[in-house]
Amino acid sequence: LHNRPARSANGNGVNGFNGNGRAAQPDNWHYAATLTDAADVESALAAVRREHQAIGSLLYLAALKPAQPFAELTLAGWQQSIEGDLVGFFNVLQGVQADLASAAAAGGSCLLAATQMGGDFAVGDGKASGFSPTQASIAGLLKTAAHEMPAVRAKVVDFGAVDDIVQAAAAVLAETGAADDLTEVGYRDGIRTMIAVRQAPVDSHQVAIPAIDDESVVLVTGGARGITASVVQELAERYRPTVILAGRSQAPPEQEAAETAGLTTAREIKAALLSGMSNQGKPAALAEVEAAYQRLLREREMRGNLRRLRRTGARVEYHSLDVRDEAAFAALINSVYERFGRLDGVIHGAGVIEDKLIKDKTIDSLRRVVSTKLDSAFVLSRMLRPESLKFLVFFSSVSGRFGNRGQGDYAAANEVLNKLAVLLDQDWPGHVVSINWGPWDAGMVSDELRRQFQERGVSLVPVDVGCQRLVEEINAGRPGEAEVLICGEDNQVMAQSHQRTAIKKQI
């Protein structure tokens, strides 16, 4: 199945392919589709099924192509790269999932995707360069597919520059039948490698001068609720810096409306809201009452958090904006530099979760989840001034490192954050790190997600411990350790890092 990059104005295919999923001169083995077009992909897959019966396995090799240098990308180019890497793979994977499940039940099936991030997933020895971070989205989605389709042999294979296509093809075929349970394997200079994680605690007691103090200016995305609010509270109590908060929610009114102020139970609050709507002549639909109730709870949480922050003596601003909006986000960053003359640190915690199995996921939902994390991260990479920045922390997730059932898009986005951190940390003088957090013992995980992590032996990270680990990472994180895991396991919180000396291993 070949990728058809575009269509001509009359709707016909280009590059020698017509519009029915078949090559212009068909030979029963070559088909074409615009991989970012789900309908086109399904048409091509239907043609394959008509002529070859069911699809037994999928080898996805579309990413084995030269990547545009990251330094040359605009936001539009970044988005196009995500579409080509993630959306293309998602459409094909979603289209063949049922086939692979049937084949697995009948005797065996393989799902293999290839990437080109250096042959060591950009975490090996030496400087990682010349790769596209967006290719990591393929790895994140595949690792989730491995959880959702456990009967299918799933693996992502990473290569360096594919100069010898015959050798690469041989490696791909070998991996389809490899007698191991590895999900990630790399090939660099002919050496087969694997990803390993080792404990790498930091020693914050050896830090003479913290990276943050009461003169620092820190930008935090993710709003004034949830775990971002918790970590900002910790920083405010310790250092009293200037904090610039950015979130999509509107800033809450200084005072709550009199009719609900002081009410504590859901029954009381909803009754007051219903009464207020009725007095104003508004229809009293239960859905509207519930929406108003949830909005009031969010406003209460934000109002309380902002008040607690300001009581520490920290200078706190809250800006309501969509961090996916390049113009608005860039304007905020520029205004910080103009007003304060500095921006010492950034914590990028913005993100949304819309968990669904891959087979049930819509492309619109996938794009929302991915763009919230990645478009804003790209804007940061372009608008921040590295020469004066002390730290940039991306809030990633263990879902990116290991995959997680129902979180294919979230895992994909976080894997891209991880590789973007690797690129930036190599070239920026300050510390750039992507923290793959385990689930916090707070409101960030659903009961179902909590159960899944517990079944895998991953316990929740206590809020106070998570805040402490973040402070340690900001002050004592080491160059070259751009991907860090912090999670609870066996009731002990561990900080683990993809250290270059520990990840790459010949097997």
Fold and architecture overview:
The C terminus is likely disordered. This protein folds into three domains: 193 residues, NAD(P)-binding Rossmann-like Domain (Rossmann fold); 244 residues, NAD(P)-binding Rossmann-like Domain (Rossmann fold); 55 residues, no CATH class. The two termini are 32 Å apart. 42% of the residues lie in helices and 16% in strands. The radius of gyration is 24 Å and the shape is globular. It contains 14 helices and 18 strands. With 507 residues, the chain is of the alpha/beta class. Strands 8, 9, 10, 11, 12, 13, 14, 15, 16 and 17 form a ten-stranded mixed β-sheet that branches. Strands 3-4-5-6-7-18 form a six-stranded mixed β-sheet, with helices on both faces. The protein has a two-stranded parallel ribbon with strand order 1-2. 44% of the residues are buried.
